[in-house]
Amino acid sequence: MALVKPGEIFKKAYQEGYALGAFNVFNLESIQAVLQAAAMERSAVIVQVSMGTRKYVGDVERFVKLIAMMAEPLTVPVCIHHDHCADFETCQKSIDSGFASVMVDGSMLTFEENIRLVRKVADYAHAKGVWVEAELGSLPGFEDDFFSEENHYTDPDDVVEFVRRSGCDSLAVAVGTSHGGIKADRDLTIDMERLQKISQNLPGYPLVLHGGASLTAAYIDTINRYGGKVESMKNVPERLIKETVRSGVCKVNMDVDNFNAYTAAVRKLMAERPEIYDPRKYSAVGREAFMAEVRHKMRDVVLSSGRY
């Protein structure tokens, strides 16, 4: 089955009441972790590339080919998606590089400017059979190296017009999550009433939730116990992320928990085994921790395990 378009897996997810995890990858080990997790959980998966990873790997077209080659033997569906493309040129290059899906980030634009940008991308993408995710509203927190304090919730009254005029295939909504967490005294929460209204206004339409990592405290504690200085942040707990799949959410972006799991495992090993110098040994430990966290998200949060 392997490589698919998002529409093929979103329809099944919507009908059966689960969502697909979208997991950012950045190197060989992270790709292995996500794909092995999908195979072991018998789950479809979205392998996601961020703008930060695009800069890190250099040649994004070769990186897409690497993901595709590694996904080829799998019997579960795999979709390769580019997250947060902020302009037409980046979207165009991503489409031409082989991504099955691109996300147009016009969240900092006006309503009309956002529509125009997404429409231009959609016209180009659809001619090449590529899926387009758009965003209406914006989330606070870090996206790669950029931090935003702004939290503009998606207005349920705007979504029908936006989808119709922009031509997007799925819509990322702002209903309470954050990118990478924010400083707060308590966990963030989901505005379920707002999400349900959006879903009611767009029946059968796939919604996307960004900022789906819950910032597991145990990983941060381990990192800091073994020499790290990672600041504790707050985001939406997993039980609330799980509830969103009942309201039309078909894709959940989950990133930071996987990275923290990887880093915690590597730091612990390096502290306990200071004689290790072979990067394969600590990279393997990081990969296993990354994979275990992805499996947990599939099984216990987005409920996609055992569907294929």
TrEMBL record:
Residues bound to Zn(2+) 2: 105, 135
Binding residue positions for Zn(2+) 1: 84, 179, 210
Example GO molecular function: aldehyde-lyase activity
List of catalytic residues: 83 (proton donor)
Pfam families attached to this UniProt entry: F_bP_aldolase
Cofactor(s) required for function per UniProt: Zn(2+)
Domain of life: Bacteria
InterPro entries, alphabetized: Aldolase_TIM, Class_II_FBP_aldolase, FBA_II
CDD domains: TBP_aldolase_IIB (cd00947)
Keywords: Metal-binding, Zinc
Cofactor note: Binds 2 Zn(2+) ions per subunit. One is catalytic and the other provides a structural contribution.
GO BP annotations listed: carbohydrate metabolic process
Protein name (record): Fructose-bisphosphate aldolase class II
Organism: Hydrogenispora ethanolica
Lineage of the organism: Bacteria, Bacillati, Bacillota, Hydrogenispora
